[in-house]
Amino acid sequence: MLERAVALPALALVANAFTWGVSWWPLRELQGAGLHPLWATVLIYAVAVGLISLRAPGAWGELLRTPSLWVLVLAAGTTNASFNWAVTIGDVVRVVLLFYVMPLWAVLLARLLLREQLTPAALLRVALALAGAAIVLWPAGGGGWPLPRTLAEALGVLGGFSFALNNVMLRREAGRSASARALAMFLGGVVVAAALALATAAPAPPPPAAGWIAGMLALALAFLGGNLALQYGAARLPANATAVIMITEVLFAAVSALLLGAGTLSPALAVGGGLIVLASLLAVRG
How many other CB atoms are there within 10 angstroms of residue 32's CB atom? Predict the structure, then answer.
């Protein structure tokens, strides 16, 4: 019974990591059908907002009465809009690795918002994440600064920063109801992605067609299922075990991208990615 009590939550977390790790593929398929990833994000998260509203209508009142939850709206929305857009237009392996530089941002944001101390272990994680990011971003010719060179890389860095802010805000707002926090996160996906789509003049969604609508609904259900799996697993396993399992998203994304030709893996990228993952694992231990 003990093995079952551990195995099922762990499998649920792996399922969530798999969902996010391979989400780039259906997003690219939707883009091929004419649905821009930003508008896809709007529609997918609108479905989730609708279902949450039906299940917990009181969450809206709590959200409107709690200004701090709107920081979570912004953070979660920026995370999802940036990540979904980046993996659709860029090298998936590079984007996911830059996204997981979040141990750097998490240390800085926790110091700023939660008043956590900068311990030697935290500074080590910052150094590892910075070194890994520098190697990943270092120009192929060796000249210049290790800065994002493409929109996808910039979005990957922005998504990692906003994801760290998302996680810090979830800790800060732990006393709020789960439904209000979930509503804030999914609503953010709608609001921020729509604002970015309008600001960048993204092509409008194509005329309704069974193909892309079915794909969008299927992806919305997959994200909802992944969210439920995350809640189930995280509620039954220690936080450090949850975080370790969630890092498998990097593995799922990298392997699927390499197999399907949506990413490349050079020796430098492998070294930089290894340092980034090591920083994440040390953050879990810390």
Answer: 11
